[in-house]
Amino acid sequence: MIVLKSRAELAKMRDAGKVVAEILALLKERIKPGVTTAELDSLAEKECRKRGAKPAFKGYGGFPYSICASPDDQVVHGFPNTLPVSEGTILSIDFGVIYRGYYGDSAFTAAVGSINDQKRHLVEITEKSLSLAIEQVCCGGYLYDVARAVQGCVEAEGFSVVREFVGHGIGKGLHEEPQIPNFVPDAGRGVELKPGMTLAIEPMVNAGAPGVKILRDGWTAVTVDGQPSAHFEHTVAVTENGPEILTQI
Questions:
Q1: Which helix (H) or strand (E) holds 90?
Q2: Which domains are present in the chain?
Q3: Whole-angstrom distance, CA of residue 123 vs CA of residue 32
C-alpha cells in the first residue's frame, strides 16, 4: 500500500530531510585523503544526536553503523572502518535519520582528492541521472517515467544501472511502497504519481557490468568486475506544483 502524506506529515518529513542534508554537508566537507570512514560515521552519529534525531540505519535489520560508506567498487551498504581513504578514490556515503517519527534518506558520491577521468564522468552522470529522474516526479506522471530517465541517461554514456537494489517509498517507515527501479522492468508504466507520495530515488551506477555480489559480511555489495560504482539519492515529495526535494539545503 502506498501511503499519501498529509501537509502536516510532509512538514515533519521536511524537518527530517533538513537534518539529513545538514549532516551530509558536514561529512562532504571532511572527505579528503587520509580521513577514515569510521571518523565520518562517528561524526554523523554525533551530529544526529545533537539535533535530537536518531540514525536511521544503525540497528536496521542488524546493520551496525550510522552511515553506509562505499569506496570505489563498493556499490552500497559498505561498512565504515579505520583505514585511511586514499587519493583517487570515489566514496559513496548513504545516510538517513528518524526525526519526529519520520525518515529522511539521502546519498552522494564524492571524489577523494584528484580522481581519474572515468570516475569523474561516472560521478557526474550518476548525479545527472538523479536530477533527470526528479524532473519526472509530477502529478499525473508514472513511476517508470522516473526509471526511464535514469536508465536512458546512464546507458547513453556506456555505464550500467544496478538492478539488484532500487529506490523506495519513505515516510514513517524507511522502506515503504512503491519500489523505484532505476530501469524500466516491463512494458507497463508503473503506478501513477499522486500528491502526497514521498519517494527515495537513488540511482546506483556501475562503470562496467551491472552485476553485484555481496561480501562475507552479509551487507557490502560490490561490482562483479571490480569497476567503480557511484550512488546519489534524494527524498522527494510529489506535489501539485511539481517535485519537492526534501533532503536538499
A1: strand 90-99
A2: 7-240 (3.90.230.10)
A3: 16
